[in-house]
Specification:
Elements: H1 2-20, E1 22-25, E2 29-35, E3 38-43, E4 47-50, E5 56-62, E6 66-75, E7 83-93, H2 96-103, H3 107-130, H4 135-138, H5 143-160, E8 163-174, H6 177-247, H7 251-266, H8 284-287, H9 295-308
Antiparallel strand pairs: 1-4, 2-3, 2-5, 6-7, 7-8
Length: about 350
């Protein structure tokens, strides 16, 4: 009974000591074995490991890829347009021993300390790289090359912390709030200028098209008018030829027809009264059934017929008897003039 009482505490103590000398390294971790604060072993492979109980400690560090958001910083490119840049970095612990010496802590505290130092490295490199180019380069497709330059510039300083800097990315690149309004106004003015130029070019093109259309209209109208005049002249010539051929068959009937036309045009509407001299030859065909009364009437009739046809013939010589009207050959019939040209002998007295 007494042996069991002493043996049980010894077993418990031995079990505790055995358990404290065993530790497991996870595949997501790296571990350092410290003895009185000094690193005596580095455990990077996952599995079961041993240490001296009570005098050795195990410090664990995350072996996964870590992400760090850099606080937004203001940079000034070559064109003096200030920009607010928001970036982040991805890294992992490459050398656990050096990482321990650089941070002087373990676990999450060491990662926080390393993150703060990495922030300062990235901010310095970002200002240096982005300050050597223009804002257009930062906002263009060359942005990926700039991010690679920032990463390569920070690799050496990150390696001194025991870190392997995998990537640096620019999440957002904006103008400062106080510059946004001025920038928007400048952009609006630029767009309005471009719109004005486009409208001016459009109006110029419209004027060219309109001028070409007007010229085409004038050319077509002139050609159509010319063709119409040609056709009208040919039609008038044919009409006159038909009139000449028709009236040449009977010149006396032609004179009678033109006299009737003159009567119709002179006595139309309410104009039914004419004041003429007693010896006027205008109504010769109304005074005689044959159209000739005496030598004077015959001469007047011939003169009226000649004037209606556009020619003036000499009066016939006095004869004891009125001579018959000679038939004019068809070839000698003059071209008839418009009816309104028929002379009317009137005395302007009432």
């Amino acid at each position: 009974m007494r042996k069991t009482t002493y043996l049980l505490p010894v077993v418990v103590i031995a079990l505790v000591v055995a358990l404290s000398s065993v530790f497991i390294v996870d595949e997501r971790e790296k571990a350092l074995v410290l003895q009185f604060g000094r690193v005596v072993a580095v455990k990077e492979e996952p599995g079961l490991n041993f240490k001296l109980p009570l005098i050795q400690d195990v410090v664990r560090y995350d072996d996964r890829i870590l992400s760090r958001d850099v606080d937004p910083l203001e940079v000034t490119p070559l064109d003096d347009r200030r920009l607010v840049v928001d970036a982040f970095a991805r890294y992992r612990i490459a050398d656990v021993n050096q990482f321990r010496e650089a941070t002087g802590a373990g676990g999450d505290l060491a990662i926080e300390v390393a993150g703060q130092r990495l922030d300062s490295i990235l901010r310095s490199q970002t200002r240096e790289i982005l300050g050597s180019v223009s804002s257009n380069d930062i906002l263009s497709s060359d942005r990926a090359a700039l991010m690679m330059r920032i990463r390569n510039g920070a690799l050496g300083d990150a390696a001194e912390l025991g870190l392997d800097l995998l990537d640096v990315r620019l999440k957002r690149t904006d103008l400062p709030a106080e510059n946004l309004d001025a920038t928007f106004e400048r952009m609006r003015a630029e767009r309005e200028r471009e719109a004005t130029d486009e409208r001016a070019r459009g109006n110029e093109a419209a004027q060219r098209v309109r001028a070409q259309a007007d010229r085409t209209v004038v050319e077509l109208t002139s050609d159509a008018a010319r063709q119409a005049e040609i056709i009208r002249g040919e039609a008038d010539a044919r009409r006159n030829g038909i009139f000449a051929a028709a009236f040449g068959e009977d010149p006396e009937f032609f004179e009678f027809y033109r006299s009737l036309t003159a009567y119709q045009r002179a006595l139309q509407g309410n104009n039914s009264t004419l004041v003429l001299s007693p010896d006027s030859d205008f109504f010769n065909y109304l005074k005689s059934d044959t159209g000739a009364q005496a030598d004077t009437a015959l001469a007047a009739s011939e003169a009226a017929a000649a004037d209606a046809a556009g020619t003036v013939e000499a009066p016939a010589e006095e004869a004891p008897e009125p001579a018959p009207v000679e038939e004019t050959p068809e070839a000698e019939i003059p071209e008839p003039a418009p009816a309104e040209e028929t002379p009317v002998d009137e005395t302007a007295t009432q």
